[in-house]
């Protein structure tokens, strides 16, 4: 296995991980931003107040994007396993 192949596999793994994590991270980011704006407007400085809305938003996003996330990871792993014979020999 050449260093280029290792870098390709690593890049593919990072891309797949980023694509799978992006919906959850974006949901948490948007929810946190909205809660922060509401906290600033109402002057409620409770740190635990943002936890529950973020958790709910991430759960809802998981319900909607979950099948796509599983398909993306399954496709990447399937391509990786199918490439094993070419990587070895």
TrEMBL record:
Segments passing through the bilayer: 12-39, 51-70
Function: Role in flagellar biosynthesis.
Family: Belongs to the FliQ/MopD/SpaQ family.
Cited InterPro entries: Bac_export_3, FliQ
Name of protein: Flagellar biosynthetic protein FliQ
Subcellular localization, as worded in the UniProt entry: Cell membrane; Bacterial flagellum basal body
GO terms, biological process: bacterial-type flagellum assembly; protein secretion
Membrane topology type: Multi-pass membrane protein
Source organism, top-level taxon: Bacteria
Pfam family, one: Bac_export_3
Record's keyword terms, sorted: Bacterial flagellum, Cell membrane, Cell projection, Cilium, Flagellum, Membrane, Transmembrane, Transmembrane helix
Signal peptide segment: none
Any one Gene Ontology cellular component term annotated for this protein: bacterial-type flagellum basal body
């Amino acid at each position: 296995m050449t260093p280029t192949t290792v870098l390709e596999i690593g890049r593919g793994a990072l891309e797949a991980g980023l694509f799978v994590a992006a919906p959850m991270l974006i949901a948490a980011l948007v929810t946190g931003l909205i809660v922060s704006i509401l906290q600033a407007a109402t002057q409620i400085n409770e740190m635990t107040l943002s936890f529950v809305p973020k958790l709910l938003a991430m759960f809802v996003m998981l319900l909607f994007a979950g099948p796509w996330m599983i398909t993306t990871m399954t496709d990447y792993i399937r391509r990786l396993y199918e490439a094993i014979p070419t990587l070895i020999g």
